[in-house]
Amino acid sequence: MKKQLYRLKQQADQRVGRAEKTDLLTEDLQHVDKTVEKIKHACQTTSKKLQACMQNKEGESERSRKKKLNQLLLGQGMVESSAVLGEGSIFGNVLMTSGEAQTTIASELAICESEIDESVLAPVNKLLEIDLPSIANNKKKLNKARLDMDSCKTRWNNAVKESQRASSNNKQDAVTKANALQSEYEDNTLLFHQLQDALATEMFTFVAGERSYAENVMKLLEAQRRYHKAAYEALEKCLPAVRETINDSMFRPVFGCPLHDHLHVLKREIAMVLEECVLFILDHAMDAEGLFRLAGSASKIKKLKAAFDAGVACVEEYSYEIHVVTGVLKLYLRELPDPILVKSLYDEWIAASKIKDRDQRLQSLWTLVEKLPSENKVNLKYLICFLAKLAENSEVNKMTPSNIAIVVGPNMLWNDNDGGVSIADTGNISIIVESLIEHSNWFFPEGCEFKRHQLSDEQIDAISNRFSQREGEQSPEPLQHSISGGLFSEVSKKLGWNKDGADITQANTTSNTNTAGSQATSSAAIGYYNPLAAQYDPDLDALYDSPPVPPKPPSSNTGGGDDSMEFSRTMSTSSVGSNSEESNLSTPATPTHRRTPSGNLPKRPAPPPPKGRPQTPGSPKTSSSPSLYPKLPSPPDHPAPPPPKPKLSALAKTTNIVDTLEKTE
């Protein structure tokens, strides 16, 4: 207690300058002390920030760490969501693969955090919790020893002065007191220097361990490198599988997708939207007036487009809205990244259309057709043959080759320079498309067969898996509304369902007991008026009040004369664009070429091949657009002019003469 009072008095005297103050550390030790403080600050900052990066508390086991990691929770959530979506979902498959990768990353992160905890945080915490507090404690002891030494020195000096001023009677006591204080001062001085040496030793030892502190940081980097390398390997293994799943999936948006990619993924030759729309028009609306010219409902066009992109489109529900189907077809052609006639050939197409001579112009157009990529050429042939077939019925649908070219042409060719089709080139593009339609037999002599693409077993399994229930039981009802056009019949045949999505055995039993119901189903399959459509389009209600179409009387005139043509016009006028069973059953199949009023097909000479295209001798003449679907009879008309006969070069003429002489010999 007495020492404490002396210390307080000494501190007060030192503050006001009445007492001498000994330096706590030498000049060298002061520099070392500053270094210790800097290292202390760096360790505290690093430890605090590093612990903030850790997702678990310090000292936990690796297993308990892994359970609390967000990456593991993310991976488990992905795997559970994948099980809900099912194997047929591309999103579900990607979630499954990604979830496994996240689980692997979580395991590696738990290992990394354990290594960091043992190799980095533990040594740093030892410095902060043991070494640095020991230095601070020794510094406090040294400070107390300094106060004791300075206080004792002050009292000793005062005792010496008093002994000098004391009288002879008290001088001996004053000298004895001064000697005692001198001895105490020497002891305190010795203790001060001992504590100062101990503090210096501890500070030097702390500073000397700076290399080990740097090695701890290196261990941190090594642990992070091992973690990131393992995570990188897990992602490198996961990404190709995810990319392959996405690229090989047949379920993807079709609008805006490059034609080559779309055909490659679906393993087909004709684009799905083009095929489904064309087949639907051939079946239901070849006599509809203003095809491709009249606009359909914008909202329903967007709906059908979105349904195609989602893979759940069914054009059958648009039987009384045929202009929606044609609008979607034009929209698909317009949204192709590269037009079907290829934008790189834009200037050549325009230059060819400006040629005045018809034969030379057609020859140039044929050369450009041959330059097209194979997938573009096949789809162009399909589209042009369909448009030519549509133009054959122009007296009913009012769509001549010229009219078709005006409304369809801008969707088949454009460039990027003018932001699309230049107004000055619109007429030239119409000339190109009109020439292709008028001379489709010459451009595509092999013709085109309009039939639906057959799904492979793999594609059918993918469709059924996509719309199957979670337990693995296949659910036909959503599948029936998920396949474009008539593809549902193929899938249902594969899976053993009827057209209503029920089991075939049950359907047969039901059909035996309820004949009327089965007849209604069959008529609905051929084409029926959807009563739900009346909720959105009240104008269609008038169709219920229209008189039924009378059945076609048997005709003995096999030549297809004026009576049959008049009946065809009456039928098409009474139900334009209808999808009824009577119109389909009463529509006779019409050959590709028009019939003359006498009923005989016009004999058209086979056109010579254009320059550079060989012609196989004796090759059979094929129609421009043979079809398996019935057509309305064409009105009597004059036969179309023969295709152009390009002039043969001198070399070609010589070659033909030599071939003729060889055959004669």
Question: Could you characterize the architecture of this molecule?
Answer:
This protein is an all-alpha fold and 665 residues long. Among the domains are: 28-248, Arfaptin homology (AH) domain/BAR domain (Substrate Binding Domain Of Dnak, Chain:A, Domain 2); 259-457, Orthogonal Bundle (Phosphatidylinositol 3-kinase, Chain A), CATH 1.10.555.10. The chain is built from 27 helices and no strands. The protein has helices at 2-16, 27-53, 62-68, 70-85, 90-165, 171-208, 210-248, 259-266, 272-284, 298-310, 322-334, 346-353, 358-371, 374-391, 394-397, 401-408, 426-438, 440-443, 457-466, 476-480, 487-495, 504-513, 515-526, 542-545, 562-574, 581-585, 650-664. The longest helix has 76 residues, at 90-165. The radius of gyration is 47 Å and the shape is rod-shaped. Residues 14-251 form the BAR domain. One of its GO terms (cellular component) is cytoplasm. Residues 632-646 have a biased composition (Pro residues). Residues 568-586, 613-631 have a biased composition (Low complexity). GO terms for molecular function: GTPase activator activity.
Descriptive tags:
665 residues, mainly alpha, Substrate Binding Domain Of Dnak, Chain:A, Domain 2, Phosphatidylinositol 3-kinase, Chain A, 63% helix, 0% strand, rod-shaped, GTPase activator activity, GTPase activation, AH/BAR_dom_sf
CATH superfamily of one domain: Arfaptin homology (AH) domain/BAR domain
Share in helix = 55-70%
* Top CATH class of one domain: Mainly Alpha
Shape: rod-shaped
Q: N-to-C terminal Cα separation, in Å?
A: 143 Å
Are there runs of 5+ residues with pLDDT below 50, and where? 469-491, 497-642, 645-655
Q: Helix/strand-derived class?
A: mainly alpha
Question: What is the N-to-C order of secondary-structure elements (H for helix, E for strand)?
Answer: HHHHHHHHHHHHHHHHHHHHHHHHHHH
Mean pLDDT: 73
For the record, the CATH architecture of one domain stands as Up-down Bundle
What's the CATH topology name of one domain? Substrate Binding Domain Of Dnak, Chain:A, Domain 2
**Alpha carbon gyration radius:** 47 Å
Number of helices: 27
Instruction: Say how many strands there are.
Output: 0
Determine the strand fraction and express it as a percent band: under 5%
InterPro entries: AH/BAR_dom_sf, BAR_dom, RHG17/44/SH3BP1-like, Rho_GTPase_activation_prot, RhoGAP_dom
GO biological process, one term: signal transduction
GO cellular component, one term: cytoplasm
Keywords: GTPase activation, Phosphoprotein
